[in-house]
Amino acid sequence: MVGMPVPALWLSGLTLLVVAIAGLVLAWRLCRWLGRESRRQRQDLSEQINRLLPQTQCGQCGYSGCAPYAQALAGGDAINRCPPGGERTIQRLAELLQRPVVRLDPTHGIEQPARIAFIHEEQCIGCTKCIQACPVDAILGAPKFMHTVIARECTGCELCVEPCPVDCIDLLPMPTVGEPHWQMPERDFLSSSSSEVRLAREVGR
Fold first, then answer.
1. pLDDT at 202 (0 to 100)
2. Which helix (H) or strand (E) holds 172?
3. Helix/strand/coil (H/E/C) assignment for every residue in the chain
4. What is the pLDDT of residue 35?
5. pLDDT in the model for residue 88
6. Residue 195: in which H helix or E strand, if any?
7. Quick one: fold of 113-205?
8. Do residues 139 and 119 make contact, with C-beta atoms less than 8 angstroms apart?
């Protein structure tokens, strides 16, 4: 550039500056697009994962529900923290996420047959603490009035048991009808009537 006129040097420098700025803008836009694409793919994956989870919303995995756990799984969290889903869910998650199958982590609980909550009406004092604890709105009642469980909605999460001050809630084994034990069957054999729930318990003994 020896001997180049000053205006030409200035124009050359300006051109380089414009090219550099344009490159930075393109790089910034590319990073934003890649970020959005990554978030979209992770969201799609978390939705696929969530469909494999039992939807008990019990919190035993350490998260507030199945959807938050699905998001954590999409981000790399352990696949063996869901006792209601058990070994079958671990196998399905391992297949989807292309990870090795591992045993259920016992620190989060043990695998058990599906259960349903049952409120002993004669003992219920209508405190509403179970209603507040239920993550799926499966309990009907009002303050100072008897409460009852909507059998079709109950996931057996156990969250209603501990808050009850009079210990009037039991978890009953729920029969399976050819489905993995953590899945909620149609339950045509149960209604939201507590008397029918009691009958189902007696028949199951």
1. 38
2. strand 169-173
3. CCCCCHHHHHHHHHHHHHHHHHHHHHHHHHHHHHHHHHHHHHHHHHHHHHHHCCCCCCCCCCCCCHHHHHHHHHCCCCCCCCCCCHHHHHHHHHHHHCCCCCCCCHHHCCCCCCEEEEECCCCCCCCCHHHHHCCCCCEECCCCCCCEECCCCCCCCCCCCCCCCCCCEEEEECCCCCCCCCCCCCCCCCCCCHHHHHHHHHHHC
4. 62
5. 95
6. helix 194-204
7. Alpha-Beta Plaits (3.30.70)
8. yes
